[in-house]
Amino acid sequence: MSTHEKTVAELAAGLRNKEFSSVELAKLYLDRAEASQPTLNAFVSVTRDVALAAAAEADRRIAEGKAGPLTGIPIAHKDIFCTEGIRTTCGSKMLDNFVAPYDATVVTKLKEAGCVMIGKTNMDEFAMGSSNETSYYGPVRNPWDTSMVPGGSSGGSAAAVAARVVPAATATDTGGSIRQPAALCGVTGLKPTYGRVSRYGMIAFASSLDQGGVIAASAEDAALVLGAMAGFDPRDSTSVDRPVPDYVAALNRPVKGLRIGLLKEFFEKGLDPEVEKRIREALDVYQKLGAELHEVSLPSLPLSVPTYYVVAPAECSSNLARFDGVRFGHRAGNAKDLMELYCRSRGEGFGAEVKRRIMTGTYVLSAGYYDAYYLQAQKVRQLINKDFERAFGEVDVLMGPTTPTPAFPLGAKTSDPITMYLNDIYTIGANLAGLPAMSVPCGFVGKLPVGLQIVGPHFGEEKILGAAHAYQKETDWHRRLPDGFK
Amino acid sequence: MSEWETVIGLEIHAQLSTKSKIFSGSSTAYGAAPNAQANLVDLGYPGVLPVLNAEAVRYAVKFGLAIGATVSRTSVFARKNYFYPDLPKGYQISQYELPIVARGKLEIVLDDGSKKVIGITRAHLEEDAGKSLHEGLPGASGIDLNRAGTPLIEIVSEPDMRSAKEAVAYMKKVHTLVRYLDICDGNMQEGSFRCDANVSVRKKGSEKFGTRAEIKNLNSFRFVEKAINYEVERQIDILESGGKVVQETRLYDPDKGETRSMRSKEEANDYRYFPDPDLLPVVLDDAFLESVRKSLPELPDQKAARFSSEYGLSAYDAGVLTSSRELAAYYEEVAKEVSSDPKLAANWVMGELAAALNKEALEIGESRLSSAALAKLLKRIQDKTISGKIAKEVFEAMWATGKDADAIIEEKGLRQITDTSAIEKAIDEVMAKNPSQLADYRAGKDKLFGFFVGQVMKATGGKANPAQLNELLKKKLAP
Fold first, then answer.
1. Do A88 and B46 touch (CB under 8 A)?
2. Does the beta-carbon distance from A201 to B47 stay under 8 Å?
3. Shortest CA distance from A208: residue in chain B
4. In this model, does residue B268 exceed pLDDT 70?
5. What integer is the mean pLDDT of B445-454?
6. Which CATH number characterizes residue A65's domain?
7. Are B46 and A203 within 8 A, CB to CB?
8. Tens-digit pLDDT profile for residues A380-402
9. Which residues of A are catalytic?
């Protein structure tokens, strides 16, 4: 097995056994990342000098016997996480010149765990998009077929891990932005429970939905990285003060007797029959392992897309007000007065999709519309919450497809926002309810990967990681690499 | 008598005197170099998040309990969205639908001595904005975000006031209260305590309110009174000449003594309030409320009532002496020392001491005379070492030199003459020198008694004990 094919867990073992040094690993992945740029465009920045310095430090710690399970492991951060002294663009022209003066909590924690950052990954502008085509830095391409989108908004992180130009990457998920690109790129993505991972330093899109997580090759790797990222942060009032369990230790939970709920609404119209076949095959594996399958219905779930497209834009319209050209970010030149400075800085700095959502959000919060849209959406959100709660009274985890179709061609949906939004139809529910959810590779349609989604109850990360790991012990979809990156 | 009735409601902004800001760890101290006290949270940097200062919540609860209001078990922070350079996030974190304090009241005393209750609709927590600076920056504007994020409570009254005087009395009452509670320094020049006044007029007897104007940012009691009076005149003039008052925001110009339009309702912002998803609802339990209740000091009204009953003071005197916690404490220290005559203590604190403080524009805390020093002086009146009149002279010397009363009495030889024979000797001399007046007095011109008192006092350098002198003089002058 080539080094780059190894999982994080295997790389960590290799570092401990002195098969290679952290500096060697960093160089390997930096070279792969740089070489992949013309094809994939998965990075906004590749941080070679910073990476090599951190890797040398990691090697010292390993030599001193002070290494933890992630010491010396290369990682990439989605360019939504602030990194001190390193440009943080959020995929936007607005922040093209923005160098954060501080590290996000997630960045700090992974640094402390010994991870070596090799770069910042490309993403949809301000995490708004499902195809990575809204990035100011150009679209990311799917390593399985470069004429296809990688999904979004964490398209750079998913593509980079799929091509093993980095073994793992951080990502964020507001409506499916970890799981959808993970599914489309054939990698393992984990969105934790809302409040499990600090949002401090993660540039906000929709504060009540945003959650940081990880994209990796396997559930085991996701467990390793999540363990280092998670935890209460006094700087984030919405982070939850609750001990972080040993996720790796939870991986080997038996699947026998696991009650799996199949979401009826996920297998209805709109689901590609080939995708459905891969999902059913995956469920067969669980059945063979002794899990029970139950059909469950979440009647309010079909309302999740319209609900999401009220709540998320509303919060975004307010969160993005700080980008006014006054203190940081893009500032229009030669403005005659304050109003022109605002209008032109924002007009020039934001892309079309971001503007669309700011306008939608402004509208739904306006006097006279608030009750009909924002308030109504909050009520539906409560209903969706209750539906999930009821379902988790009957089953341990929920399963279904992550996306209705495999990856679609670049440009196919850019002119039709509604069709694009419907891509997140299966993922949005978990965000509205704040639930932990994963996407796990479960086969291919043609040469394009398909993702199985596993949703757990609040703080049920151990359950879904255990279920994902059990499946990955039986299958090797997660070990496949796209041609050209083997 | 005017046929118009004035209706006033106040929105008072009181800066809470917490050490750090409401959602960040920056200092709230006044007067630092621009932006020296603005961290990444105050600057609204990408990715940063607010964390609520628990002390600010405690202060707001103190206020709520002190005005007998309902303190909400659950209150919610909301975002008030608008663009302005001194508002870094593009929204102000405030409270909207669920404020922390609702439905309280305060009692004010009117000119005629009668009392009036002013309703307080709500008081909510919010963050202050920064300041835009224009002076000394030709062609540009500067922004100072030191104040951004300073905790405020906005205290919204019912439209219960009917004159500028009532509005000032209410504002003073709130001012006294927040300082008693030690939740706001009350410094109006620095903007720690300021208000917006909603003013309208209506025909007497009308139930419907007139259209109101909101006068923004009044930062002195005098301005409040002047601005409201000007605004009332302006509105009455408009209505009497057949016009209509426009609902708008106005600014008071203290130099010109007038209000002028800032923006009309049509241009008003739609603030698009919604609950701030970065902050959890503030949930308070009984134990917390009880602990705050126990920490409340004696409140101004309670203290005034006690002063009346304990020290036998009039309602007016008790009101004056309790107008600040420091003054009340000073008075009580003096009164306890001269316990047989608390009225004497009241007269001196409100008389000589207040005058001396006023003359130099000093606060009671800055008094040159400690309460103990003043008490010592009053004791010398009580034990007849000096007369009240001489005491004023001693007071002045104490104020000027900082020396203690006894030292000055000795130094200046002001000790009162209480030796009967010495006073009698002085009387005899005066009588011998003024035979014609003596004759007139004895012939029935009683008024001349005062003349003799004055002459004897003069002869004794004012040191004769006045009561003794009176008694002896009467005897001696008797035919």
1. yes
2. yes
3. B277
4. no
5. 89
6. 3.90.1300.10
7. yes
8. 999 999 999 999 999 999 999 99
9. 78, 153, 177
Confidence (pLDDT) at B265: 62
Enter the ipTM.
0.96
Residue by residue, DSSP assigns A438-469 as: EEEEEEEETTEEEEEEEE-STT-HHHHHHHHH
What pLDDT is recorded for position A344? 97
With H, G, I as helix, E, B as strand and everything else as coil, classify residue B194: strand
Distance from CA of A121 to the nearest CA of B (A): 17
Question: Residue A405 contacts by C-beta under 8 Å, 6 or more apart in sequence?
Answer: A272, A275, A423
Residue A335 exposure: Cα atoms within 13 Å on the Cβ side? 19
Residue B6 forms beta bridges with which residues? Answer: B201
B85: Cβ contacts below 8 Å, ≥ 6 apart:
A324, A326, A338, B132, B141, B143
Instruction: Name which of A235, A311, A323 to mutate to probe chain B: the one with the most chain B Cβ atoms within 10 A of its Cβ.
Output: A235
Q: Write the DSSP string, A75-111.
A: EEEETTB-BTTBB--TT-GGGTT-B-SS--HHHHHHH
Ordered alpha helix ranges (H), A214-291: 219-229, 273-288
Provide the domain limits for residue A50. 3-260+394-479
B45, B85, B89 member nearest A338 (Cβ): B85
Q: Which of B46, B81, B280 sits opposite A318 (nearest CB)?
A: B81
A88 inside domain: yes
How much is the pLDDT for B301? 93
Chain B residue with CA closest to A316: the answer is B277
Are A70 and A115 within 8 A, CB to CB? yes
Q: What are phi and psi of A290, to 5 degrees?
A: 100, 10
Return the number of CB contacts < 8 Å for A and B.
Answer: 99
CB-based contacts of A286, cutoff 8 Å, min separation 6: A255, A258, A260, A293, A399, A467, A470, A471
Is A349 within a domain? no
Cβ contacts of B143 on chain A, cutoff 8 Å: 326
Chain A residues with CB within 8 Å of chain B CB:
81-82, 88, 90, 95, 98, 100-102, 104, 199-204, 206-208, 234-238, 314-315, 317-318, 320-324, 326-329, 338, 342, 362, 365-367, 370, 374
Distance from CA of B176 to the nearest CA of A (A): 35
**Overall number of domains in chain A:** 1
Q: C-alpha angle B333/B335/B336, rounded to 5°?
A: 65
Contact B83 A321 (CB under 8 A): yes
* Residues of chain B neighbouring A81 (CB-CB closer than 8 A): 47
Q: Examine residue A373 and state whether it is found in any structural domain, yes or no.
A: no
* Cα–Cα dist A278/A272, whole Å: 10
What is residue A92's predicted lDDT score, i.e. its pLDDT? 98
Whole-number Å distance between alpha carbons of A437 and A176: 9
- How far does chain B reach from its first CA to its final CA, in angstroms? 61
Q: Per-residue pLDDT for B244 more than 60?
A: yes
pTM: 0.91
Could you report the per-residue pLDDT of B61-93, keeping only the tens digit for each?
A: 999 999 999 999 999 999 999 999 999 999 999
The residue-averaged pLDDT of B92-99 equals: 97
Burial category of A170 from C-beta neighbours within 10 Å (exposed 0-12, middle 13-18, buried 19 and up): buried
Contacts of B294 (CB under 8 A, 6+ apart): none
The verdict on residue A242 lying in a domain is: yes
Rounded distance between C-alpha atoms, residue A323 and residue A345, angstroms: 8
- Residue ranges and CATH numbers for the domains of chain B are 10-201+262-290 (no CATH), 298-411 (no CATH), 420-477 (1.10.10.410)
